[in-house]
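I would like you to sit down with the record closing this message with an eye to the fold:
=====
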Amino acid sequence: MAPTDPINPPGEPAPSLLEGRLWVDGCFDFFHHGHAGAVVQARQLGTELYVGVHSDEAILENKGPTVMTLRERLLATDACRWVTKSVAYAPYVTQLDWISHFGCKYVVHGDDITSDSSGEDCYRFVKAANRFKVVKRTPSISTTDLVGRMLLCTRTHFIKDLERVLEGDEGHGTQEEKKKVGEEMKERIRLYATDETAKNPGADVWFWKGDEKKEECNEERGVFRELFKGIGPKPGQRVVYVDGGFDLFSSGHIEFLRLVTQKEEELAREEGWYSQQAVEERKGKGADYGPAFVVAGVHDDEVINREKGVNYPIMNVFERGLCVLQCKYISAVVFGAPFKPTKSYLTSLPWGTPDAVYHGPTSFMPHTEDVYAVPKEMGIYKEIGNHDYEEVNAGTIVQRIMKSRDLYEARQKAKGMKADIEAAHRERELLEEQQRQKEEAIAAQKE
C-alpha cells in the first residue's frame, strides 16, 4: 500500500453519520507513543477511526514550526495499526461540517485542552454539539518533551533494565511506587500489542537478555522470556527479522518496514499466495492475512548510547518499543535484542530461525565490523534499497531541531504561555459549570 498523498482531495461526502466511525486529529509531529495512546483508546470506542492531520502552515500559525513535513506525518498515521484512514489538511479548530463530511459522528481527544493561537479550545464546536468523547492523555510524553530532551541533551530518561522496571525492581520512588509504575507500563505494552480492533491480542512481545559471559567462540548467547502472547505466525507465513534502535520512530523506519512487507508480498505473489484458491483456503479458516510475520528486535538504551554517545537514544527502550508495537507492519517485538544478531540468537528465536533478515540502505550507527555477517553466512540476509526517506533518522531529526534552535526554543516558551491561557480557560469552564449546577439546584428547590 502506497503512503497517503496529501494532495488528494477529501472525496465525496459520506451519506450519513456512522455511530462507529470516530475522528481524531492533531499535528502528529514525529508520531510517538503518546499519539498512539490517544489513537488506540479512540479505536476502542468504535469500529472505524479517521485521523485528521493538520497542515504545516496551520501548525506554524497556532503552535510553532513542525519538525516533520506533512507527507512524513501522514506516512506515520497511515502506518498505525488502529487507523482506518488518514485525512490531510484537517482544520486546526475542529469543524462540524468537516467531520460530518467523512461520516464521523464523534471526535475523540485526550483529557487535556488543546487551544488555537488565541487560546480558545480547538474542540469548542464539537463539544457544544455533544459530539465529543474524552480519553486519558498519555502521561510524561509529548512532542514538546522530546524536543526538550534534544535541546537540553538530558539522559535522565534512560532505562537500564526494562524487565526489572516492569517488575517494580528498578526505578525511582518507594517500592510500592515502583511496583505501581511497573504495572502501568506493563499494561501500556499490553494495550499497544493489541490487534487492529484494539481489543484483542495482536503482536507477540518477548524479552531477550544476553549472558554476561560469552562462549569461547565469542558468540553472545542469551535467554528469551515471553511477556505477552499474541496471534503468532499463521500457516504459510514467512518469519522475517529486522532490528534497530528505532529512535524517534519516524518516516525512515516506517518506509523501511513498509518496503520489507512489500518485498515479502512480491515474493509471495510469485509463489501463488494471492491465487484465488489460496485466498479462499485462508478465508475458509477465518479472515485472510498477509504472507509475512515481521519480528522487530529493539536494542537497549545502553547499546545505542555505546554506539552513538551524547544523549542518544532520545526515546528510552520502553518508548521506542511502544512506537514499534503500534506499527501495522510489525507482528512481534523483542526487547533487548543484541546489536549483532548471532547464529545462536537467530536460531533460538521463539518463532524459529527466520526466513529472512532485512536491513536498510543506510545506518545511523556506523560500525567497522559487519554486524550482519552471520545472516549473510546463513544465506538469509536481504537488503532494502534506496527510498525517499532513507536519510530520516534520529540524527537528522536532531539536526533539524538544532538548525532552527531559536524557533524551537521559542515554541517551548510559547507552550508554557499557552498552558497558562489554557489553565485560565479550564478555570472559567469550571466556574460556569458550578454556576449552572447552582442554578439547577435553586430551580429544583422552587419546584
Q: What stands out?
A: Residues 417-426 have pLDDT under 50 and may be disordered. The radius of gyration is 23 Å. The first strand starts at residue 18 and ends at 26.
